[in-house]
Amino acid sequence: MPNNKQAEKRLLTNEKQRVRNKARTTAIKTAEKKFKATIESSDEAAAKEALKNVFAKLDKGVKFGVIHKNKSSRKKSRLTALLTKKA
């Protein structure tokens, strides 16, 4: 339990930030799953659109400090390779 006003405030702000970060990471994972589903359906145009959406989510995640930039780059590379392999 917090012992002073500042500790109470940090407890509240940390919880808010944790919820925001969780939402962002969940959105990234959901976008990846949708992209992989469109690849399985063999719809190339939809897959490219979904890939663009995943890239946007990853870039936002990096911007807000939710994921590391190298992790984002690695995911982008692997997803792009997956798209070119299936095409």
Give a concise summary.
It is built from three helices and no strands. It is mainly alpha-helical and 87 residues long.
What would you note in describing this structure?
- By secondary structure, the chain is mainly α.
- It has one domain (5-86): Methane Monooxygenase Hydroxylase, Chain G, domain 1 (Up-down Bundle), CATH 1.20.58.
- It has three helices and no strands.
- The radius of gyration is 17 Å and the shape is elongated.
- The N and C termini lie far apart (55 Å).
- The mean pLDDT is 95.
Based on DSSP secondary structure assignment, what is the total number of beta strands? 0
Outline: elongated
* Assigned CATH class: Mainly Alpha
At CATH level 3, the topology is Methane Monooxygenase Hydroxylase, Chain G, domain 1
Q: What is the CATH homology-level superfamily?
A: Ribosomal protein S20
What would you call the structural class? mainly alpha
How would you sum up the major sheet?
A: none
Tally of separate domains: 1
CATH architecture: Up-down Bundle
As a whole number of angstroms, the C-alpha radius of gyration is 17 Å
On the 0-100 scale, what is the average pLDDT?
95
Which strand-content bin applies to the residues?
under 5%
Distance between the termini: 55 Å
Q: Tell me the helix content.
A: over 70%
Number of helices: 3
Give unreliable regions as ranges.
none
- Give, in order, the helices and strands: HHH
